[in-house]
Write a structure and sequence with these properties.
- The complex is a heterodimer of chains A (91) and B (400).
- With 91 residues, chain A is of the alpha+beta class.
- In chain A, a hairpin with a 4-residue loop joins strand 3 and strand 4.
- In chain A, helix 1 crosses helix 2.
- The N and C termini of chain A lie close together (11 Å).
- Chain B is 54% helix and 9% strand.
- Chain B is built from 18 helices and seven strands.
- Chain B has a seven-stranded mixed sheet.
- The mean pLDDT of chain B is 87.
- At the A-B interface, strand 2 and strand 3 of A face helix 4 of B.
Chain lengths: 91, 400
């Protein structure tokens, strides 16, 4: 949870009424993020750790911490697999 | 369902969506439309963002088929991301040009998109049009080349790359493109506003370059940069001329954008300013026709503010001419014959139309391939060549 998510700087994105659409101009692939994914994407500023983002999201969404942690782990896995985000160690 | 009907249905839907009062009862007939075909057509017109937005409103619930709305929403998302790419790149270019001290004016596209549609994602951007001063032309070119742009050659152009650049130069504009991964960014530079290529009779008749393009401009934010944009009056004139002369009244995207611009700015635009700017009868006719078409599409008028009758010179329209323009709007593509017919009909007088006929039949400038290749044909052979091209085009369309 100390890892810091770093967005791929090539990615173009747009917030559409609380959801996000991402475009990788190098591949031409589009990705959609729901409201939770969009909130994560907006908070991932390259400085905040996963734990800090999770704390902020707990304040924003009415959800149990365990459930949110699992959702964020799944989201990070998908984003990483698609080259949209990389995780760097805070230490 | 024919393409004409699809365009008609898009326009009918647009009219209802923008009509005053409750639309709930008016949209019930739309349940029975061929929504998958209509969504494809809307997407083709680059308007998925706008229609996804208005069709997902609560009062439209149950009107558009669920699967069609999902398809439309997904297309709208792609447009939003595509436009975000354009906005990001435009912002960088505007910042770069500003640092060089180059003054440029953003035409169309992002200049009024946020106000017209409520956001910059509603309709697909195809290029960024910039009006620059003639003196800055080579500085801007050098800047774009240093930023990895290359001259853009229209894929359908049948001549060489050098010939295309020459043709564009004759229209007093230049096209550049840059590839970022699989995406291409197109920039169109204009340094003189004119109706058509150099030597075209409509250039003198409309005298577009004498209009106050750089007067009463305002600023618009594009990403982190700001750009100059036209005054609402000049924007209306530009949109009307662009739709009528460059697109020959064809293209639902341009027409709907023009309607929405009038819908939003109709009460702000000063008709007396437009009247003072647009003096040429031919230009007033173009404006009159487009205003009449938008008035019919919107289903209401701005009474004395933007009354098309006030612009239209007496006797400017031939019998059936206005119906022809309306048919042009409904066509799926711009046919060459309709394009030339529009150009011949455009002047407001018979003398003007005869000047156009003479230009096409006898002026070597009207045959693009002759002058770009330096192989000017005989003046007296030209009418036969033109008729040959017309017949060939008609036959090609018959066999298509």
């Amino acid at each position: 949870m100390n890892d810091i998510p770093q967005k791929n700087p090539d990615i173009i994105w747009k917030n559409l009424k609380g959801e996000a659409v991402l475009l990788n101009p190098l591949t031409g692939k589009y990705y959609g993020l729901n409201s939770v994914g969009c909130a994560f994407w907006e908070k991932a500023d390259g400085c905040r750790s996963m734990a800090e983002i999770e704390t902020l999201m707990l304040q924003e969404f009415n959800v149990e911490q365990e459930r949110l942690s699992k959702d964020l782990r799944d989201l990070i896995k998908t984003l990483s697999e698609n080259g949209l985000v990389t995780l760097t160690d805070k230490t | 369902m024919s393409v004409t009907n699809l365009n008609k249905n898009i326009l009918r839907l647009f009219t209802v969506l923008n009509s005053p009062g409750s639309i709930e009862s008016k949209v019930q007939d739309f349940r029975y439309l061929d929504w998958p075909a209509l969504v494809s057509k809307i997407n083709e017109a680059g308007l998925a963002g706008y229609f996804a937005d208005v069709l997902s409103a609560p009062e439209m619930s149950g009107v558009i088929h669920k699967e069609a709305l999902v398809k439309l929403t997904n297309a709208a998302r792609r447009i939003a991301a595509h436009n975000a790419f354009y906005e990001d790149q435009a912002s960088k270019i505007l910042t770069g040009l500003s640092a060089l001290g180059v003054e440029c004016l953003l035409l169309k596209g992002f200049s009024y998109m946020a106000e017209i549609y409520g956001n910059n994602s509603a309709r697909r951007m195809s290029d960024i049009d910039l009006l620059i001063h003639l003196a800055d032309r080579f500085r801007v070119r050098d800047y774009l080349l240093s930023e990895s742009f290359i001259p853009y050659i229209e894929p359908t152009f049948r001549g060489s790359a050098d010939e295309f650049i020459l043709v564009a130069d004759f229209a007093r504009e230049a096209h550049y493109t840059k590839k970022t991964g699989v995406l291409a960014l197109h920039i169109d530079l204009h340094w003189k506003m004119q109706a058509n290529f150099e030597g075209h009779p409509m250039n003198d008749a409309l005298a577009l370059d004498t209009l106050p393009w750089w007067y009463s401009t305002s600023h618009v934010a594009i990403g982190k940069a700001t750009a100059l944009r036209l005054s609402p009056e000049m924007q209306l004139i530009h949109m009307a001329i662009h739709f009528a002369l460059h697109h020959q009244f064809n293209g639902m995207r341009w027409f709907i954008e023009l309607c929405l611009f009038i819908h939003k700015f109709g009460n702000v635009i000063k008709p007396e300013s437009i009247s003072a700017i647009v003096r040429s009868p031919d230009c007033r006719k173009v404006l009159g026709i487009t205003l009449r078409m938008t008035e019919e599409a919107l289903g209401y008028s701005f009474e004395n503010r933007l009354n098309w009758r006030g612009f239209m010179p007496k006797g400017a329209l031939l019998p059936g001419e206005y119906s022809f323009y309306k048919k042009c709007l409904m066509r799926n593509y711009r046919s060459k014959i309709a394009t030339y017919l529009c150009m011949l009909l455009a002047p407001s007088t018979m003398a003007g139309r005869w000047r156009m006929v003479k230009y096409f039949l006898f002026d070597p400038h009207s045959v693009m391939f002759w002058w770009v290749s330096g192989k000017s044909g005989s003046k007296w052979l030209q009418p036969f060549y033109i008729f040959y091209r017309l017949i060939r085009e008609a036959l090609r369309r018959r066999h298509a």
